[in-house]
């Protein structure tokens, strides 16, 4: 049975997609079977794996709005153990289309349950909003992984994020848990980054991963080559950091079982 995890933070540009692409690629390389679902209309996870959105027959849009079976939409990436459910620009209109559908908050949940026996982990890349696509994601998953950027306003919006999680727990998904908090874009040369790390650790108590993702230019370049950083530049600091995060993630998972 898979564990299903949403990469969630309603702020844009905090490292959700970068974490999704690179953490899932590292965990797949370590031998776990992974499916990544890209539910962000921007489709950066889809292109980050080198998939050309314009040539696809189906996308997650068809699953949510047209009730196409999720299994039909899964495509393999060129990396072993790693499949993807691609996004499409049509998703941008899905929020409005969903509004008139019955059970609009749990369209994704029912679909994901049909593939749970095929993967070790399913990662859902959420859009930067609190709309119906995000609610569908939070209703469908077992836990949320929250990336937080090491910048001045890091904790701004976090109470709203926690409120959303509480609301979804209460109304749609009582077992929803926090998988962990990943600090991203850390710049060791600034006091600010160091201060943010302390603040976030104090707020989330034991939930913050010891591995911190540094600001690394290779991480920013890799998507334009359609590659996770461990294939684009395996020796880069970014590749090293995400491999370490994957190891920590799996170690903590084993402790739970
Ligand atoms: P989100 O999905 O939360 O909007 P992204 O993962 O797309 O955020 O990151 C926003 C931008 O920052 C992207 O251009 C990405 O390449 C870049 N980026 C993300 N993490 C890092 C990092 N650790 N070092 C350098 N650039 C990064
Ligand atoms: Mg993104």
From TrEMBL:
Gene3D superfamilies: P-loop containing nucleotide triphosphate hydrolases (3.40.50.300)
Known catalytic reactions: ATP + H2O = ADP + phosphate + H(+)
Record domain AAA: where: 2-178
InterPro entries in the record: AAA_dom, DNA_Partitioning_ATPase, P-loop_NTPase
CDD domains: ParAB_family
One protein family per Pfam: AAA_31
Summary of subunit composition and partner proteins: Dimerizes in the presence of ATP but not ADP; ATP-binding is required for double-stranded (ds)DNA-binding. Interacts with DnaA.
Family stated for the protein in its record: Belongs to the ParA family.
Protein name in UniProt: Sporulation initiation inhibitor protein Soj
